[in-house]
Amino acid sequence: MNIAVMTDSNSGITQAQAKDLGVTVIPMPFTINHEAYEEDINLTQDQFYQLIRDENTEILTSQPALGDLSKAWQKALEDHDAVIYIPMSSGLSGSCQSATMLASDDEFEGKVFVLDTQRISVTLRQNVYDALELIKQGKTAQEIADILVSRKMDATIYITVPTLTYLKRGGRITPAAATLGSLLKIKPILTIQGEKLDKFEQARTMKKARKIMIEAVKKDIAERHWDDYDLFVAYTEDKEQADDYIKEIEAAFNHPVNWVDPLSLSVACHIGPNSLALAAAKKYID
After folding, report:
1. Taking phi first (over 0 means left), then psi (-120 to 50 degrees means alpha), and beta for anything else, what does residue 171 get?
2. Which one has a higher pLDDT value, 52 or 248?
3. By the 8 A CB rule, do 30 and 37 touch?
4. How many CB atoms lie within 10 A of CB 52?
5. pLDDT, tens digit, for every residue of 132-159?
């Protein structure tokens, strides 16, 4: 089968990288101070962080318009037999459910496969790479969908943030909790295990939070009996901090970090700049 692969910008794959890979990345839309933007189309990472630092900036995230998604699928099906679409986890956005409903239309049924792999960022990127490799192996679209969905729990992510300001602004925690946390200098550590973003632990310093994330990922790898795995780092704005963390990770695991990406703006708007994430996923394909 001639199969097209699509994802959204929450995968961390840029439009330029998508062109090189031969995939399509659907940009996540934003409304910033009542103006419409799309990630990596008319809103860059630098522009975003300049805006988000202003406490009066109103940022609302959304999901791709079904009309735009429909057009992207129609275009892909002009010269492909099927489309594999891998959006961000259904537990973090309604975009996956909306796409699933759209794929049930007569026009797309049996041709467009929407995969809820319950991943985001660097682990979602791994899904895209694996889909491309499975296409090379001659798998059908249904086989690829079944394989990738069956692996949805074979990934783990931990994220730490230096301030509670943006979690409060986005309504993720109450103002009272944010104030208390700031007074105590708490650095929360969040985790994504399957669908939801949940609190995992907390630390008093970013240095301690970084160590906690390393130990948590080590524990997950051991308990899940992964013979081989990929390691990933994601960050918001501060690449230098991420590069420093990579050295710490590689020394702790005696294993290379496979790639490092900026976190998507859809995530960054809730956690703010200078955040760090460590992720791992079971490796199936070299």
Report:
1. left
2. 248
3. yes
4. 21
5. 999 999 999 999 999 999 999 899 999 9
pLDDT band at 168 (very low <50, low <70, confident <90, very high): low
The Cα 124–Cα 82 span in angstroms is 20
The DSSP letter of residue 263 is: P
Instruction: Give the H/E segment covering residue 206.
Output: helix 206-223
Give 119-177 as a DSSP string.
--THHHHHHHHHHHHHHHTT--HHHHHHHHHHTTTSEEEEEE-S-SHHHHHTTSS-HHH
Q: In whole angstroms, what is the distance from residue 119 CA to residue 88 CA?
A: 6
| Amino acid (one-letter) located at 27 | P
Look up residue 19 and give its two tokens. Answer: 């062109």
Determine the pLDDT at residue 283.
93
Q: What are phi and psi of 209, to 5 degrees?
A: -60, -40
Task: Give me the chain's average pLDDT, please.
Answer: 89
Quickly tell me which residue has 């990922």 as its tokens: 217
Instruction: Please determine, for residue 167, whether its predicted confidence score (pLDDT) is greater than 50.
Output: yes
* Residue 20, C-beta contacts closer than 8 angstroms, at least 6 positions apart: none
Residue 286 has a pLDDT of: 61
Residue that the structure tokens 């294993």 belong to: 255
CB 172 within 8 A of CB 186: no
Both tokens of 2, joined, read 């001639």
Residue type, 123: T
Copy the structure tokens of residue 250. Answer: 């590689």
Tokens 């491309």 -> residue: 132
Report the alpha-carbon distance of residue 171 to residue 76 in Å, rounded.
Answer: 38
